[in-house]
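Lecture notes, unit on binding sites. The following record was shown on slide 14. It pairs a sequence with 3-O-alpha-D-glucopyranosyl-D-fructose.
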Amino acid sequence: MDKRQSDRILSTVIDDLQGSDLKLDERFFSRLGAQFSTIAELLERLYGKSVEFESAVTQMLWRLAHSYEARPERMRLLDLQREQHPAWLQDSRHAAYMAYLDRFAGDLAGLEERIPYLRELGITIVHLMPFLKGPAGQSDGGYAVSNYREVEPAFGTMDDLRRVAEGLHDEGMLLEVDLVVNHTSDEHDWAVRARAGEKQYQEYFYMFDDRTIPDQFEQSMPEVFPDTSPGNFTYVSELDKWVMTVFNDFQWDLNYSNCDVLVDMTEILFFLANCGADIIRLDAVPFLWKRIGTNCQNQEEAHLILRIFHACARVVAPGIAFVAEAIVAPMEIVRYLGEGEYAGRECDTAYHATMMVLLWDALATGNTRAFHQGLSSIPETPPYTSWFTYIRCHDDIGLGYDDADLHAVGYDPSLHRAFMVAYYTGRFSGSVSRGAPFMANPKTGDARISGTSASLVGLEYAIEQGDEEEITKAINKLVLLYSICFSIGGIPIVYYGDELATLNDMSYLEDGDKLDDNRWMHRPVFDWAAAERRNSPDTVESRVFSRLQRLLQLRGSLPEFGSEIPASMIDLANESVLAYERRGGEKGSVVVAANISDRSQAVRLDGAYPAVNAWLDIVSCEAPQQFDDVLIIPAHGFYWLRPSHGEVECCEDY
Ligand code: OTU
């Protein structure tokens, strides 16, 4: 678009906005002025110079103005503070808890009562998975939304949500919510109207009169849920048409090549932000744009859409942050944090799915080679962006390695993936894991893994055997994985129930709406009686809860654990030990050394630290096991180390 045209659109809109009843201030207009050319240029790249282009830009600006006017004063203040302090989310104090609202706390009122529990654990970010109105029966755990502006009635109301957000803010905590941007449920008003024959709404989706175009798409489109929802299109009998449904057949993919969809979704985004959400998890973003002849993931246009969201947020709600839920190839994930001139101007955070799977890999093999190789291939994150680090979430564990990385460390990629599935589903000799294969696809040989962290590390097996030693071993493995997740850089996520070592829950098999989807085995109704046992010493719950709590508290007191500065990996001769340094603290670095194997390991940090011959483990406040300059790390043990100066040191500072 030439400058004259864009100036003309902007000045017309500004005149109209100023002449309207909307209460807008100088700040809005100056932010708009700063972002306008970006927004207009991105829209033009997406939609070309169509006849409607000018009206699309105008529409978008009006929606932004309405959203800004509706932004509550307290959220505007947070916006200002965060603009002043762009690393607001990267503080080491932050740790997230990810839960289904209903399964964790019943409803929004119940959640308010559970905040003290989360604070006790050391949580500052509460991520509620989808709680908006969805279909009765199957709703993919809420990831099929029927109304983006209404809470599922059984969980409360939008006002309850606003109150929860305020309550969290008063405690210095943050609210994270999901925005399911890629699809709606087939009961959403747009889908209902499309089904009733309204052409305007049929264009909100990918609808086709026959199989010609669907067949062209299918040639290169993988299947996300091949077991339960094979294919990517669903026949709509009322219309005698085919609609694109990449996920389940009741989740209709939105058609972002229609700019009305983008404009509407942008407004919904700010509606949620104005309810008090600080962080918005954008679900399934790789799928936002579809193109025949491709796998319909990670298309350039998906990035343009996210950049538009980001630029619009700078105008309306600069204090919100976006999380990219992009569980794709390692090199693709990092692109969602923006690149080139858009580095740091797309999503603010992204799930570190690569690290997640590499951690499970290291635990299965007792070896850190793939971990090092995999991480070293990932470019650094742009300034003011960070990873969300996690070991488990409500989804399956996908084995999304980069094949080249596996080759580089001497593995055959497909054999190695088969090993991982066999190992974590307990079919590999010696494995104590109790996961289950998810969506095994005989056509591709692909499979993912379901199961809770505790069952995957062998706790279920150990308890069944009544074997105390095995129980301790499983607990150590679980805490070890979390210790890395908390210390390696990024904002850590605790998946609900992991802090109590919750085992697989097979009750989903009795529920007709869930039994086809074994991800429900790791989505239990939270056991508050088990949570009580965190207060009884020696129970499994107290042993795990207290250690994670200690680590989170310690992490929060160490500014160098914030996600601004990445961990520097330390190369050790010992492949069973993962070691890295966190620099930048007042008292010097912290060195983390974690033994991922089931035997004690001896390491010398002297290559990296020739001058240090005594260490203090700041987790236990004791000296680590050490002979001369050799550190001994017990099986599945770890240390967070500072150089010790000889005198008896007290950890009260930590
Ligand atoms: C997400 O996951 C959600 O986390 C899932 O719970 C939903 O079922 C799904 O979207 C649909 O809304 O394929 O196996 O690259 O991997 O979006 C999980 C991203 C998924 C996809 C991811 C998706």
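Take-home: The chain is about 40% helix and 15% strand.
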